[in-house]
Specification:
The structure is a homodimer. Chain A is an alpha/beta fold and about 220 residues long. The first copy, chain A, is built from eight helices and eleven strands. In chain A, the strands form three sheets. Chain A has a seven-stranded mixed β-sheet with strand order 5-2-1-6-7-11-10, sandwiched between helices. A two-stranded antiparallel ribbon of chain A has the order 3-4. The first copy, chain A, has a two-stranded parallel sheet with strand order 8-9. In chain A, strand 3 and strand 4 form a beta hairpin. Chain A starts with a strand and ends with a helix.
Chain lengths: ~220, ~220
Amino acid sequence: MNKPLTVVFPLYPGVTQLDFTGPWQVLMHLPGARLIAASLGGESIVSEGLNFASLQPLESLTECDVLCVPGGGGCTDAMKNPDFISHIQRLADNATYVTSVCTGSLILAAAGILRGKRAACHWMYLDTLAWFGAIPVSERVVRDGNIFSGGGVTAGIDFALTLVAELAGEERAQRIQLGLEYAPAPPFNAGHPDVAPAALVAQQLASTAALRERRRQIIQEISLQ
Amino acid sequence: MNKPLTVVFPLYPGVTQLDFTGPWQVLMHLPGARLIAASLGGESIVSEGLNFASLQPLESLTECDVLCVPGGGGCTDAMKNPDFISHIQRLADNATYVTSVCTGSLILAAAGILRGKRAACHWMYLDTLAWFGAIPVSERVVRDGNIFSGGGVTAGIDFALTLVAELAGEERAQRIQLGLEYAPAPPFNAGHPDVAPAALVAQQLASTAALRERRRQIIQEISLQ
């Protein structure tokens, strides 16, 4: 890792902050890495009460080595925004690695980047990747060539460690893991429908039904355009 | 959870952002919770390249239900800042739960809050808690009465789920875990000295030796004041 490596996180209103703050914490320890949080016009992004300021205008970025698109409830608006999508396409075109966390893969899909590609997504929306011609894969971190994608929210940490291993070797990734004391010990085993109690999954699906259906409908409309 | 529950995160220069963005992402789903990121004078905090703006002045906060102090390389400066420490003491005095992530426990210790109390910390500095009369415990999440502390950085997510279970029940914590897809699958098993390859731990200790020793000396000086 002799030359600087630029990692761009394109943020947008309604982004889920842990989708990018998790990978950011990992990738900032990558030797030679330069991390950039960007948004349309460099506007500040308020995500769930946290105000991220001093962002770089997406318009000012000519290229990057790694493009990392986070997910969030605002992903559908981002998918429908031609300005935002055009910057994703432009930066992805010249990036060495095109990556996403959570529903960030839907943004890549809407930008036409995932056709025929295997990708991860938040479990609630994983299947909708197929509407864009992508191949949904229910795994924590998915790689298809130079495209890396992580599953829902917290998968961004596992994704970022996987990317560090690719870029700088396994030993570097392990040292970062040790520094961040990433030996997770969730107090419960409920982090995915495959392992959570069935009643809990049913309850979660029921309580989010209206929101999910509305979002899925919007995603479908975007996929048909 | 009928009445609003106020959670205050006191930020300071040199805070590690994942120490609070992780718990923030969990606790924001706690029904009725109001999360507040604060700093001395409400000054923006730049943490590892991310600029957190629109912070509440610590001076303006009269009380909170949960105080959550994150860690970071700047913790020693925070420990030496009498203004900052006095706000920690004042808010802790009336909080129902006093909590920390990573080296945030050293700040609680410097504020005199952990005497005789069991607490967690980042593995590199865990033993230094004893210099303040606290009882260091090498666990991911430690509880002593109304004091909850998490280990290094990423332990903040496990800590926050544990706190949600205390405040709103296990089912709520599990639903948040499911929503954040927190079924961690680290690509390596190197997140703690107990499990990482011995050579890796030795290398990490060697490469951080000068920094660690300097920090430990500062922590010791503070503990003797």
